[in-house]
Each structure stands twice: as C-alpha cells, then as structure tokens.
Amino acid sequence: MADVIPIRIGVLGCAEIARKVSRAIQLAPNATLSAIASRSLDKAAAFARANRFPPDAKVYGSYEALLEDPDIDAVHMPLPTSLHLRWAVLAAQKKKHLLVEKPPAMNVAEFDKIVEACWDNGVQIMDGTMWLHHPRTHKMKEFLNDTERFGKPALVNSCFTLLADSDFLKNDIRVKPDLDGLGTLGDLGWYCINAILWAADYELPETVAALRAPVHNDAGVLLSCGASLHWRDGRIANFHTSFLSNLTMNLTVTGTKGTLHLTDFNIPQREDQASFTTLVNPKYNDLRTTWLSLPIEHTIETALPQETLMVEEFARLVAGIKRNGSKPDKTWPAISRKTQLVLDAVIASIENGFEPIEILG
Amino acid sequence: MADVIPIRIGVLGCAEIARKVSRAIQLAPNATLSAIASRSLDKAAAFARANRFPPDAKVYGSYEALLEDPDIDAVHMPLPTSLHLRWAVLAAQKKKHLLVEKPPAMNVAEFDKIVEACWDNGVQIMDGTMWLHHPRTHKMKEFLNDTERFGKPALVNSCFTLLADSDFLKNDIRVKPDLDGLGTLGDLGWYCINAILWAADYELPETVAALRAPVHNDAGVLLSCGASLHWRDGRIANFHTSFLSNLTMNLTVTGTKGTLHLTDFNIPQREDQASFTTLVNPKYNDLRTTWLSLPIEHTIETALPQETLMVEEFARLVAGIKRNGSKPDKTWPAISRKTQLVLDAVIASIENGFEPIEILG
Predict the structure, then answer these.
(1) Does position A244 have pLDDT exceeding 50, yes or no?
(2) Residue A1: pLDDT above 90?
(3) Which residue of A307, B141, B184, B301 shows the fewest CB atoms closer than 10 Å?
(4) A154/B252 touch (CB, cutoff 8 Å), yes or no
(5) Are A29 and A84 part of one and the same domain?
(6) Which interval of the chain is the signal sequence (chains A, B) (predicted)?
(7) Are residues A148 and A121 part of one domain?
C-alpha cells in the first residue's frame, strides 16, 4: 500500500533533543531517518554513528545541502529558537514539511511568518511538543470532558522546574539571549502554558499577568518566572517554571466535581506506561478526620513512546498531503500559536510591571 | 504523679469543628472534657449528648457562665472569628487558657490584643491548626532541613480548595462578613499560608502580592483568591484557595536538590497513618525518555490523630504553667501571628490593586 512508504525525514542540527527525536523517527512505522545535517560534516557523521542512523542515511555538512535534497520529505528542526525563522522559512520554500522544536519561534510575529511560508508552499508544520501525543493525555482529556465526574473547569496549576548545574547556567543554549533566548519560559514554561491551554480546550485566556520576582541572568534571559491566566468566566490558571530548583513536573486541573493530578506530565516516568490520579466528589467522614473517597490511579499502557507517536502523527499528516492531496492540518499549528501568544503575554507583563496583558487571539 | 491529672477544658460554642475537638479532648491522655456552653442551654445539652461528653461535664446556657467556673482550666473557642476578640480577652481575664480556632482574629491588631490579654493574665494561647502536630509534619520537616537531600529551599506551592454547595454559599458562617468574614482566605487559605511559613522555618516573606481575579460574594467575603510571597533571598511561594472548586489539598516544597509533595497536607486521608513523597536529585536516562529515580513514598503511623496531638500539646503547656510555674509558651502564638500578618497582607494587596505589600514583622 502506498501509505506505508515511510516519510523521509532529515534532521537539521545535532542538538541534544535531536537524539531523542532521531530514535523516535526510527521507531515510527510511517517515517524513516534519511539524513542529518550540521554546519560541520564531521559532527554530522559522528551524530549519525552515535545515534545509529540507517547506513543509507545521508550526511550533510550544511543545512542548505540537506534542504536541497529532493529525497527528503520533511525535516526535524532542533535548532536554537532564534534560528527557526530563517531556517523554517527556507525549509518551507524548499517544500520540506516541518517538525520544529518548541518554542517554534521567538514570538508570535515570527511564528506567523513561518506558518505563512508553510502555507504558501503547501507544507505541514507541527511543533515538537511530545506529551500531547501520549495516550494518557487523551485519557485525561476524557476525564476533563466528563461533566459528571469533572464538572466545570475552575483551576489549573502547573509547575515545571529543573535544577540547572553551573555548566548549564554558563553554557547551555537555553541561557543565551541570541540562541534560546526565551530561557526557562520557552523551555519548561512552554509545557506549562501548553498544558493549561490543553485543559482549557485551547480557549485563550482573557488576560495574562506575570508573577512578580522573575529571575533573569546577567544577559537578560529568564531563569525563573510564573504567571496567572484568567478567563472571562472566572477560570484561572497559575504556573511556575524555573531552572533553579529540583525537578518538579506537576499538573493539577480542578473542576467543580473532580480533580486531575499528575507529577510527570511532560515526560512520563516510564516509557511503556503512564499514570494520573483523579479524585471525584470526595467526602470526609462525619467528623472530617478521614477521607471516605481517595484519589484513583489510572495507568495507561503505550506500545510506542510519546515522541514516536508525535512523529507518527506528523508523518501521517505529511503522507496525506504528499499522497492524497490533503491540505496541511491547521489544528496543531493553531495550538502552537496560542501557546506562543500566551508566552509573549508573560514577557509583556514582566516588561510592563506585572500588569495584566489582554490576549487578542 | 501530679502531671497526669488532666487539664479540664470547656468548649465555648457548638460549632461544627467543636465536635472534632471535643473528641480530641476526650482522646488526649492529659485533658478532659469538662463543660460545654452555648447561648442556648438546650443546644448545649444536645451537643453534650451527641458528642458523648462525660456524665459529669457541665452544661452552660451562656459563655460567661462557663468562664466563671473555677473548675475549668482552659477553653476551646470555636466561635466565629469576629467574636474571638471579645470572648478571648474575657476568657484570658478569667484566667482560662485558650485553644482558639483559626484564624484566631480578624487581623493582627486584634490578635495582638488577645495575646496581650493572655500574657497579662498568665494564660497560654494556641490556635487550632491541627496538621502542625502530626508526626508526618515533623518527618517532612526533617526532610526539608536535610541539606544533603533537600538542598536550599526555592519554591512552595500550595492549593487548598473545596466545593461549597448552595446552602454553604448562602448560610455558612464562612461566607458572612460579620462572622467568619475572612472567607476562604481565613478558612482554607490559613492553612496554605501556614504551610508556606512552616516550610520557610517561619521566616516572614519580604513582600506578599495577591493574585488577580479574586472572587468575592455579594457581601464582600472572599470565595476564591491567591497570592505570591517573596523572600529577599529569591525564595518564592504561591498559593490558591477557593470555595468554588473540588477538594484539592496540595503542598509541594521544592528545594535545589529535593522535592516534597503531598495531596492531603491538612487532613490526612487516614487517621492512623499519613504519607508524603520525596524526590531527590532525580535523573533521566540518557535520552530523557524515562526517569531513573522515582518519588519515594514515606508513610508515618500515628497512635493518636493530629487533633488529639494538638490538644495534648496544649494541655502539656497548660499543665506546665499551672503546676510547674512555667511561663506561657510563645512559639505557637508567634506562628499564629505570622500567619495572620501574611493574611492581612493578602487582603491589603487585593485592596491596593494587587500591588506587593511589604511585611513588617
């Protein structure tokens, strides 16, 4: 069958995350790892070896060369965020479908230019947010959509932090203003915002107000920050993200009747299964000294890890365009854009003395 | 031995919480339930019957009458917060030691008047925060004090909400401005603030800024709110409290090396044991698809429930004053006062357009 011919994906850059995605491309049943490019041919070759690229995968010493290759359908772009605009637009112009690392752009204006280039050239764009593709995420959504068990949404709380060591804080691209200049907000905060929007069925908040006392490094890159999001109907969400404290990856979504809670929302503790808890309509005993109903743990098995499911979804969309004349999917980039909008608003709020910023979708 | 003669405690009012504390007084080895007072003698008698008071417990039809009884050493005061000042001062003047429900006062100025009356009359004051007396709390504190496992404190996040039904929202004393006029902030928020201060070794934050979009009822009582607390050294804490969403009782304390997490910090799920998790220096596998170290669950048994341990501690302090000439303990009221100070600051911040309020200890 035509649709099992795998989509040929090239990797544009040897970033850390490219190792994980390269494996995911190899594991995805409808994709194949066709090329690697780096500005250094030696580095590209070493990356291909270290990550067990297929023997026939091509190795390029420049991004342009890979983009010129007519045997590549799509690229994974793990470059620093500040380079996305240039290379994503060029990739689109070269008719390469685009799986771009998050955040896809430095701001929504840049993102819109990238998307415009994609639509102009009939190529798919999807960002590299993996957890949205996990079957656990779909199962959790069923719970949030269940008005009997969850009720109406009221509050989301998300916290994603990690402790960066001194080498990271000095040298990592995520602390360099000219590379991943959005710092922890673009890295871990992206997932917090994304999870909050996911829980809100991607309805944008009315306002976003940054929490006070964000921490920047000397170059002005965010190392720690947070924000509150407010919807017109009274729903609220709070998040905190930081490179300055121990790994914490919590997501709590509270409705009028039920609560969803997990502590590994972005990277599940295990590859083959993942859990979350729900607490529905809890009651105490008469004297309120004991809980009569306890949180229930739900465990979801998955044959393929979430990053592979992401690649599979991307390749499925690309195959549809390439073979069936489908239009590029606009659902995934719409999610990316909303996440990027909120991210912009957090920065604007910090720059405006923590005043709430109105979100204009 | 003299010190096993139980401290005789009278209960001033038939509030819901008085049922739990009455049982705790009965269970405490060094206290005895000696009297109940209500403005209605019938109501007091019914309360004594329903809560299995000892046959020799006295039943009073006025608070004054109980306070005049020379055979009462101490009172539990579960009255609405707005009545505390009047009755707590009178109780102190009548030389009754005081276990007062939280929040002990409407604001720190009132609290200081109550404490002054207690010190003037040589009586103990302690507020009714139960969870601080649970052995789990002490065990968690050991973790937070362990610089090898926890590192330096960075972030506290606490969320305590419950879904009030329409009867509660119409009739409960916690939504009446002239009764428990501090609403959810004084009720559930008290515990959030208290837990944050506990995690900070009771070091007051430098500033407190309320989160935007608090919800008040028509009478101006808080039904939902939150705040960020900031310390000079960069530590931060965020909390949210509400009567408008499903029961959530989370506390997460993140240090540079370790994270403490629990979802029932204020009322443990079981009376005889309670758990928390710690995650220390976690690592992913090489590709960051699996956690190599997982949160560890710690379970602490307790022979007596936390509210009984609270009464036991209170009675121990009272016995020391009464029999050994000890001075009233000032540690517990200092904690109450700090909690009350932060609570005042949250309200001040809401009233001042969410500006940060400086805390002057």
Answers:
(1) yes
(2) no
(3) B301
(4) no
(5) yes
(6) none
(7) no
Q: Which domain holds residue A16?
A: 2-131
Mean residue pLDDT across chain A: 96
Residues of chain A with C-beta less than 8 angstroms from the C-beta of B157:
157, 159, 240, 250
pLDDT in tens, B54-92: 999 999 999 999 999 999 999 999 999 999 999 999 999
For A72-89, the pLDDT digits (tens) are: 999 999 999 999 999 999
The two three-digit tokens of residue A245, written as one number: 């404290």
Q: Which residue of A has its CA nearest to B277?
A: A263
The answer to whether the Cβ–Cβ distance between A155 and B159 falls below 8 Å is yes
Residue contacts between A and B (CB atoms, under 8 Å): 180
Give the number of domains in chain B. Answer: 2
Chain B interface mutation, best of A26, A228, A287, highest count of B Cβ atoms under 10 Å: A287
Minimal Cα distance from A256: which residue of B? B245
Q: Does A189 touch chain B (CB under 8 A)?
A: no
Strands A273-280 and A357-358: unpaired
Query: Is B118:B291 a contact under the CB 8 Å cutoff?
Result: no
Q: Which residue of A209, A258, A269 is in closest CB contact with B212? A: A209
What is the CATH number for B38?
Answer: 3.40.50.720
Instruction: Write out residues 250-309 of B within 8 Å (CB-CB) of A.
Output: 250, 252, 254-259, 261, 263-264, 267, 269-271, 279-282, 284, 287-291, 294-295, 305, 307
The whole-number pLDDT of residue A172 equals 93
Say if the Cβ atoms of A255 and B238 lie within 8 Å: no
Together in a domain, B56 and B155: no
For chain B, residues with pLDDT lower than 50 are 1-2
Q: Which of residues 12-71 of B touch A (CB under 8 A)?
A: 19-20, 23
Same domain membership, residue A287 and residue A155: yes
In the predicted model, is pLDDT for residue A2 greater than 50? no
Asked if residue B140 and residue B71 are part of one domain, the reply reads no
